[in-house]
Amino acid sequence: MQGRVNFTADYYYKLTDGLLGGAPLSVISGVGNTYTTNIGKISNQGFEFALNTTPINRNHFRWNVDVNISTNKNKVVSLGTLPFLAGVNINRVNAYINRTEVDHPIGGFYVLKEEGQYQTWEQAATAPVYKLGNQPYFAPGDFIPVDQNGDKVIDDADRVWYGSPFPDFFGGLNNTFTYKGLSINVFSNFQHGNLIWNQPRLTSETFEGNVWQSTYDNRWLPSNPGAQTSVPVPRNNNPLLPSNRFLDDGSFLRVRTITLGYDLPKSWMVKAKLTRARVYVQGNNLLTFTKYPGWDPEVNSFGSSVTTNGIDAGAYPIAKSLIFGLNLSF
Q1: Fewer Cβ neighbours under 10 Å: the N or C end of the chain?
Q2: Residue 54 belongs to a domain
């Protein structure tokens, strides 16, 4: 292949000691009931693959491709004497959705499940007692929380592990095309398999302010009893539970940069007493392919917290931009 294909594969394993967390503190200290200390161990392991190839290199035309893909399995190995660490309480549901526990991903989603909708007042009257916050009243069109253990009470015992804020795999793709003085570079990055808590969608479904068109179109209506919709009946104080209903697929492919450049002919450089002159135009974040219904799948509103990941609290999306430039070398 005359050096036109290079491939590398690596396996890694890393054990990190010293995860910061809140350990219990005696109330007689007078300074609170927890203190921050190093309490945990986290393991990360996976594979890294990289490919560099030149499919075409003839008649002044060259096409170069760089691809890298990585996997990562994140697991909590130890939390000292603590049974688990809870993430922050989420606005409107007033409960945590991230939980860090041994043998699970750090900050994994630990939520209730909701399946189906109450269709009549008689069905809604059979709703279980809710003990993760204030008792909501259920009505036709509301979603049914799953009572995992059948005790007619919805509490922490009814939560289930439901995915991770971390992707199964992620990577990048870089294509460079050159023909004489003309060049085009396209760089994309991607990730797959992570979930995102979609707080803007939850807010939309309260019908208390601006409402997404998709929310309005898919709402449950009393005039259409028996229908199974993706949005509950619009009303005040409809139940907002820390459930899987607000977790969306965060996979995406984003065209990060597209750069078109042209190196001016060398004969021009001699006259201008330059060694090189290049003009270019670069577009940033112009295209994103994703099923995530929020504003930006590449979001983490609590980026400073390792135990509260994968939450979209309405963060401003990455901006698109167009840049024109001129590079001169003397």
Answers
A1: N
A2: yes
Domain ranges, residue 52 = 5-112+159-205+240-329
The whole-angstrom separation of Cα 241 and Cα 111 is: 9
Range 68-73, long-range pairs (CB < 8 A, 24+ positions): 68/171, 68/172, 69/169, 69/170, 69/171, 70/46, 70/169, 70/170, 70/171, 71/46, 71/47, 71/168, 71/169, 72/44, 72/45, 72/46, 72/166, 72/167, 72/169, 72/170, 73/44, 73/45, 73/46
What gap in Å lies between CA 316 and CA 311, rounded to an integer?
13
Q: For residue 163, which of 193, 201, 202 has the smallest C-alpha distance?
A: 193
284: in domain: yes
* Residue 321 included in any domain: yes
Q: Which letter, b or e, does each residue of 48-86 get, where b requires 16 or more Cβ atoms within 10 Å of its Cβ?
A: eebebebeeeeeeeeebbeebbbbbebebeebeebeebb
The residue with tokens 């890294």 is 48
Q: What is the pLDDT of residues 306-322, one digit of tens each?
A: 788 899 998 888 999 99
- Give the contacts of 24 (CB within 8 A, at least 6 positions apart): 33, 34
112 neighbors 146 (Cβ within 8 angstroms): yes
User: Residue 291 falls within a domain, yes or no?
Assistant: yes
Number of H helices, E strands in the chain: 4, 22
Which residues lie below 8 Å from residue 143, measured CB to CB, with a gap of 6+?
A: 114, 115, 116, 117, 232, 239, 241, 243, 245
319 CA to centre of own chain: 17
pLDDT at 201: 93
pTM: 0.86
Compute the mean pLDDT over every residue in the chain, rounded to the nearest whole number.
Answer: 88
pLDDT digits (tens, 9 = 90+) for 78-117: 988 888 988 889 988 999 999 999 999 999 999 999 999 9
Amino acid at 320: K
- Per-residue confidence (pLDDT) for residue 37, from 0 to 100: 65
Total domains present in the chain: 1
